[in-house]
Amino acid sequence: MKKILAIDAGGTKISYAVVDESGKFLNEIKTVPTPKTIEELIKVFKNIISENENNIDITAFATAGAVNINNTKVDSSTPNMPEGYNQLDFTSLSTKPVFVENDANCAAWAEYKIGAAKGEENTITITLGTGVGGGFIIDGRLLRGKSGRGGEVGSMKINGQKRICTCHRYDCWESYASGTGLKKTAEEIAQTDIFKSSIFNTKTPQDVTTYDIIEGLNKNDEYSKTVFNIWKQDLITGLINITNIFDPESIIISGGMGKFIDTEEIQNAINSEIVVSPVKIKLAKAGNYSGMIGCALLACEKK
Ligand SMILES: [Zn+2]
């Protein structure tokens, strides 16, 4: 059975472990902080690889950013990674094969192979965090597009209210449906009269946090409920679009914001507005290290 060194390279930390072909961890997961410069980052990657190289067949990276069609390099800007990250040829890091894939795609593959969407050939995993990520499994294959950058669902346009996104474009779905989007909605609604009777009314609109809104929901605060309902409707709008285009068996929700939603409520709202057959909405099950499992399993299919 093949052994894969799986490395999850994110903006704040790098996690790694050896995984087998079935997605099982063969040793303890280790974590190191992400260095600030590309030189230091390459050194960290090389150290991790040389520690394990004799014992493995492939190194697989799950990374932030869009990955090229050959799975060797990050092909987009990656604001959270050191400058020069998208110049790095990952195959130069090891004498053995190296495979790189976008972390949201890896997470989707893990849900499909061993998680909440196991056995479902058409399934989409949406990650709701600071941004919105997506991985599309269509007819049992990972959708990559002509350049490898397909499935950038967070950049789908909704609403047309001219809300500026972190990518400097307007009205990306992620500028509404992410955690950052919830905060932005909170700020906007804090400019209206409903904020006057809110438990947070002593704060300036810019200082209301995502956590405040969640706390407000639990305390039955009308302002917080209004904000959350707008956020939820923006989430549902995007999920309806995805469902109508791809007709998936399931949409799996992962990421930090997932724990605040009622999947059954979202599922019913979607299914009452679509033209394709009903979809199931489920929370992710492959765990915090789904990126590592997914990149390892994808690497086995490719190499
Ligand atoms: Zn954007």
Any descriptors?
single chain, 303 residues, alpha/beta, Nucleotidyltransferase, domain 5, 5-stranded mixed beta sheet, 8 helices, 10 strands, binds zinc ion
CATH topology of the largest domain: Nucleotidyltransferase, domain 5
- The helix-strand sequence is EEEHEEHEEEHHHHEHEH
What percentage of the residues does DSSP assign to strands (E)?
Answer: 15-25%
Range of helix content: 25-40%
- Overall morphology: globular
Fourth-level CATH superfamily of the largest domain: ATPase, nucleotide binding domain
Spatially, the strands of the biggest sheet line up as 3-2-1-4-5
Number of domains in the coordinates? Answer: 2
The top level CATH class name of the largest domain: Alpha Beta
Short description:
By secondary structure, the chain is an alpha/beta fold. It has eight helices and ten strands.
What does this structure look like?
With 303 residues, the protein is α/β, with parallel strands linked by helices. It folds into two domains: 3-109 and 288-302, ATPase, nucleotide binding domain (Nucleotidyltransferase, domain 5, 2-Layer Sandwich); 120-284, Nucleotidyltransferase, domain 5 (2-Layer Sandwich). Helix content is 32%, strand content 18%. The protein has eight helices and ten strands. It has helices at 38-52, 103-114, 174-177, 179-189, 210-218, 222-246, 263-271, 290-302; strands at residues 3-9, 13-20, 30-33, 58-63, 98-102, 123-128, 132-138, 141-142, 250-254, 280-283. The strands form two sheets. The chain has a five-stranded mixed sheet, with helices on both faces. A five-stranded mixed sheet has the order 8-7-6-9-10, sandwiched between helices. Helix 4 (179-189) packs across helix 6 (222-246), helix 5 packs across helix 6 and helix 6 (222-246) packs across helix 7. The protein starts with a strand and ends with a helix. Zinc ion binds at residues 155, 165, 167, 169, 172, 174-175.
